[in-house]
Amino acid sequence: MSRYDLAGRTVVITGSTGGLGSALADALHHRGAHLALLGRDETALAAQVDMLGGPRTAWAAHADVTDLVSVRSAIDRAADHFGRIDIVVANAGVNIVAPTATLDADAFEHVIDVNLTGVWRTFKAALPHVERQRGYLLTISSMAAFVHSPLQGPYTASKAGVWAMSNSIRLEVRHLGVDVGTCHPTFLKTPMMDTIHADPAGRRLWSGNERGLWRMCTVSKAVRSIVSGIERRAQTITPHRLHTPAVAAPGVFRPFIDRFAFTTRTITEASAAAPPNGGPALTTSTASCDPEY
Q1: Which domains occur in the chain, in start order?
Q2: Which residue in 4, 136, 155, 293 is the catalytic one?
């Protein structure tokens, strides 16, 4: 597959002022991309725009991924500013470390709302623009999609859910020329990890991320992997090679299922037949916060 040239393309990044988001924005800027930077800290966003060359190359807007209207408004205005949106990186995320026995229900729901539903809102709002450019949607998932650690129920559920949801969306939009990918970094030296290391539970759980499977990956290494993945319009991006088998294993049979069980004709006909909003919800009966990346 030929390299997807980033020069002149518009990239939307949610959670752009965090550790990974800011490093990724800088790398994409050096590739010649135009950047639409979305987040909640307007002061940090303004400083980021200035650092990346001003409104000709970088533009920012307040956006809360827990609010579809907010995200849609920001993305629509970004498209008006640059005239197009080619790539979306759903990067905003939060984490919490606590056992289920003591975890507050509101905290659980907030993690899911940001990390999983927030990605859906971002893709939902951006898809009409990305479809026009036959572009690329990418979400920053995590190795937590495959390695389910204790004390992180909502986080692992959200990251596994993002991976599964992205695989579903990929099938829906492939006939439109849109590609969908997920990135699965391991622990990165970002403000989020600083918060975890300041928490005795987080530090004990992963031994400070100093060695072995939990060893920290540099942000620069992760960014190089992400940029390369965008240029390949990759389905899966794994910055740490040690974890490649864990990422690859669940998808061994998926290419065959995607190709033969869900044909483009089947998907387009099913999409056309679906009632608005999916119709009434189906039920089954049985017997029985941290900063952005």
Answers
A1: 10-187+217-243 (3.40.50.720)
A2: 155
Specify whether 136 is catalytic: no
Rg (CA), the chain: 19
- Nearest residue to 4 via CA among 231, 160, 257, 243: 231
Structure tokens at 59: 């533009």
The torsion angles phi and psi of 180, rounded to 5 degrees, stand at -130, 135
**Is 239 within 8 Å of 143 (Cβ atoms)?**
no
Distance of alpha carbon 177 from alpha carbon 132, whole angstroms: 9
Query: What is the rounded distance in angstroms from the CA atom of residue 136 to the CA atom of residue 166?
Result: 12
Least-confidence region, from 59-73, 80-94, 205-219, 222-236: 205-219
**pLDDT tens-digit readout, 237-284:** 986 565 556 566 566 655 665 676 557 776 676 667 766 655 544 433
Alpha helices in 31-92 (DSSP H): 42-51, 68-82
pLDDT at 183 over 90: yes
CA distances from 82 to 77, 115, 134, 141 (A): 9, 27, 16, 27
| CA pair distance 268, 61, nearest whole angstrom | 34
End-to-end Cα spacing for the chain: 30
Does this model's pTM top 0.85?
no
**CA dihedral sign, ordered 166, 13, 24, 219:** negative
